[in-house]
Write a structure and sequence with these properties.
With 222 residues, the protein is of the alpha/beta class. The protein contains 7 helices and 10 strands. Strand 7, helix 5 (142-151) and strand 8 form a beta-alpha-beta unit. The chain is elongated.
Amino acid sequence: MVLGHESAGVIHSVGQAVKSLKPGDKVAMEPGVPCRRCTMCKVGKYNLCPDIKFAATPPIDGTLAKYYLLPEDFCYKLAEHVSLEEGALVEPTSVAVHVCKQAEIKPGVSVVVYGAGPVGLLCCAVSRVFGARKVVSVDINEERLKFVKRYAATHIFVNQKESAEQSAERLIKECDLGKGADCVIDASGAAPCIQAGIHVLRVGGTYCQAGMVSQAIAFSSW
């Protein structure tokens, strides 16, 4: 099958009813097209449509093809100065915006983001835009952490082989988080990160699971 769901492209041709786009326009492409008729679609949460057709999710082919068909309202016109490479980042950035909204990021909070991959990095950047005063990026890859420190995070933390409780205690101390972080986002999907993230969170804080989890997660007693 064809892969790809983070894409931008150039309009080749349009249907007769299309008004907002024309051939030659550069657009960012939304990869999931919902049914538009179910309850989730009608209340505005179309990303939760049970019948959504999402690019590069079997049996739906992805966007890395010469031609790809999309409804007009799922193509977002790019300004002339925006490149196609930047346009392709609209989709993962929208994921980070949604995650930060779910995590209730607001001015003055402290945020810990597990995973310094593309989505984790963007969650750090969006958290800063939303006004977070402290953003800690956590990963085992020190090169990634060096980059995210230059790009968006105020603090970085290298995961080591230790218990979730020990890791959380060390992170809170090294990053001066007091009684714990206000918000924790996991963008890794890794069990050790999820387990440690719960312990990093202060009482009454907000946890958001963004990474895809592939196994059952066990938590130790508090």
